[in-house]
Structures are given as C-alpha cells and as structure tokens.
C-alpha cells in the first residue's frame, strides 16, 4: 500500500536513489517516539526535513506497518508531501524490499525515523562513496565510531534482493542489513570512519528512550527552540560542554 508519485530523477548519478525512512508507533522502548514533539514539531518531521536537504536523493518514502496505530504516520507523511508504504511490522527487511520494488528504487538510503539530528553531509558522503566504489553496501556503522543518531546506510536493490532471499533468522528479518554485516565476505562493503567531533562515539543524539527524548529536548531549548535547523556538530559540541 502506498501513496504519492515520485518526480523525475534529478541526481547526478543517473540512477534512481530513494531514501527509505523506517518508522512505526509501536516501539518497545518508547512507544510513539517518532511523533513525540520537540520544540513544537514531531521527531519524524525533523528527519524528513533534513533528508530533503540531502543532494542526489530523488525521493523520500516512509516505510511503516499496516497496523492501525501507524495510520497517524501515513497521514503525517501525506501532510509533508512524502510518499509512504505499509508492510509487515516485524519483518522489516521484507517491508523495505517491498517498498523499494514499489517505488522502483535502484539504490536505497536507509534511515531510522528517530534520528532527529541526522547529518545531511554524512548521508551525501555515503552516497558518493557508494557510487564511486561501485559497492553493494556502504555505511558509517561498521566499528560504531560515530555517535548514536548519525548512522545511515546505502545499498543497491540487487543487494537488498539478495539479503531478502537469504536471510532466515528473526534478527536478520527484523534488522534490515544485519545479514550483510554478519556475512561481509558475500558483499562488496565500503564504510567511512568518524573524524573531528564525530569521533566522540559515546555521545547520543538519537531518540530511542525517554532519557534520549529528554536529552534532545534539553538541547532543543538552547539550540533550536523554534524548531530551526542546526548542524549535528552543534548538538555534539553542546553535549561535550555539558560534560565538562
């Protein structure tokens, strides 16, 4: 089930690139976290707005579940002129694959809907590396050298199709790319490592628990009280100063 039409391809790679945002209201640790308000806007709105500034992405699609509780996400996506797809709640891998097929994606950028301060430049660098190296899978996850909340992944439709066909274990179906990370010899994998303020991997600017949400709200009161755009570096520097 999906809504919305994709526009003409505009990226410089002449290859359809679609960002798929994983989001649902039934999170175990913090139910409804993606619609929790921060400075007057839901978390998911920040994610979508920041993705819209990423170069060489042709479209953004929200991938959510068929559960009634996720109707609110589809309605919100529509209000933001964002397409959506609804699939299995727990088999997230299949949901991603079906979303990619429905929207004829050739390259997929995977984003988590709670990453309120995702970094557009990191996503752009991952896309560039993915195409320049002709990789199957590219991310900044390997080694966990970046702070939580700044991870992104890029993979080809052929890679996603391969994983969808091979993955059997429940954790491989629930976590879209875990099969790739657990079987690195099967794929051409590229990654970027952290630098500068990003090296402080113990910092956390994601929204996964109530403590995370409170942390982000405390940052927002100072840095973006009206929901304005800030760099992820600014948020990390703020957290560093708080620890001093």
Outline the structure in words.
- The chain has 244 residues and is α/β, with parallel strands linked by helices.
- The chain has one domain: Spore Coat Polysaccharide Biosynthesis Protein SpsA, Chain A, CATH 3.90.550.
- The protein is 37% helix and 16% strand.
- The strands form two sheets. The protein has an eight-stranded mixed β-sheet with strand order 1-6-5-2-7-9-8-10, sandwiched between helices.
- Helix 3 runs antiparallel to helix 5.
- The N terminus is likely disordered.
Gross morphology: globular
Return the CATH class.
Alpha Beta
CATH-scheme architecture:
Alpha-Beta Complex
Uncertain segments are 1-5
CATH superfamily: Spore Coat Polysaccharide Biosynthesis Protein SpsA, Chain A
Biggest pleated sheet: 8 strands, mixed
Average pLDDT value?
94
Work out the helix count. Answer: 9
Q: In sequence order, what are the helices and strands, one letter per element?
A: EEEEHEHEHEHEEHHHEHH
Rg, rounded, reads: 17 Å
The computed structural class is alpha/beta
Strands, count: 10
Strand content of the residues, in percent?
15-25%
Distance between the termini: 49 Å
Helix share bin: 25-40%
CATH topology, by name, is Spore Coat Polysaccharide Biosynthesis Protein SpsA, Chain A
Number of domains: 1
This entry's quaternary arrangement is single chain
Strand order of the largest sheet: 1-6-5-2-7-9-8-10
